[in-house]
Amino acid sequence: MSLFWRIFSLNAAGLVAATALLLGPVTVSTPVLPGEALILLGGLAVLLAGNAIVLRMGLTPLHRLGRAMATADLLVPGARPPVAGPAEAAELIATYNTMLDRLQAERAAGAGRALHAQERERHRIARELHDEVGQTFTAVLLQLKRVADRVPGDLREEVSLAQEATRAGLDEIRRIARRLRPGVLEELGLASALRSLAAEFTHHGLTVHHHVPGDLPALAPEAELVIYRVAQEGLTNTARHSAADRAELSLSPLPDGVELLVRDNGTGLGTAPEGAGIRGMRERALLIGAEIHIEPAPGRGTDVRLHIPAPTGHGHGARAGDRA
User: What average pLDDT does this structure show over 40-58?
Assistant: First the structure.
């Protein structure tokens, strides 16, 4: 029953009852006697209480909808207020849920286009760093080597320092190019790329343990790229912000897909708002219909869990390179 008819029926019932009493044997004296006043006040209280109950029942779903609208986040799929209450409220909630679904689909499509454009730009920059800047540094190294063979002895140490600085710059450029364009992912597969990523982030003060089996369900290239980028961002946050000395990277097969876990023993999430890195991870997860949860780890630290559903119509298997 709609909210209008609920309130109308209750008010009509009260007015009909009051009219029946006035037309019947009940009379009101002048001045009003105490007993008559109590009866009138009791009837008024019953009518007001009935109106309050009906309004509360009718408006509670709208209050729930208001809270849902205030906390809605398109990066958190599935968070929808239940469709309940009078007809008008139920229709409004259903319309709101449909609008959220449409906005989420449009945002996922837009995020997909933006992320694909971002990956293309990453590949272009990585190629230019490797082919142009890298070759320039290599030529400088060769030139410095020729100079070192001809300079006086008192200058050789300075030339050697210049060689070391140039070589370090070349290594850094290559490292940046690898992070921009994960060639190992394209060439050897997801498992090998994740193992390489764990080795890359293992440095002084941080040890990354990995557990990535070779026998994983077959995943779409987009899903593999999302898994790699989320793992990369999770380890980057660990190295930069968590003050952790140990991290764990694992990819586990599940009956309905796979789950990526990046765990550290650092300082935890704290009260700081989510930054661009975490928002980017949520955008990528939304792109492939995955669920991502960022929460405190058991004991201390942070857990980043990414659950990727298995693609329909595909069997299990792995690339040849993943079994290496």
Answer: 77
Q: Are 241 and 202 in contact (CB under 8 A)?
A: no
CB 214 within 8 A of CB 316: no
Cβ atoms < 10 Å from Cβ of 250: 17
Report the amino acid identity of residue 7. Answer: I
User: Which SS3 state, helix, strand or coil, does residue 203 take?
Assistant: strand
Distance (Å, rounded) from C-alpha 124 to C-alpha 175? 15
In whole angstroms, what separates CA 207 from the centre of its chain?
A: 26
CA distance 252 to 142: 46
State pLDDT tens for residues 165-218. Answer: 888 888 888 777 777 777 677 777 888 888 888 888 888 688 999 998 877 788
Cis peptide before 34 (omega within 30 of 0): no
Tokens 């006043």 -> residue: 37
Sign of CA dihedral 184, 188, 194, 195: negative
* pTM score of the predicted model: 0.60
Residue 132 identity (one-letter amino acid): E
161-178: string of b/e by CB count within 10 Å (b at 16+)? eebeebeeebeebbeebb
- Count the Cβ atoms, other than its own, within 10 Å of residue 285: 22
**Beta carbons of 303 and 294 less than 8 angstroms apart:** yes
Q: Which amino acid is it at 130? A: H
H or E element that contains 9? helix 3-23
pLDDT at residue 77, as a whole number: 64
Task: Give the contacts of 23 (CB within 8 A, at least 6 positions apart).
Answer: none
Q: Are 232 and 185 in contact (CB under 8 A)?
A: no
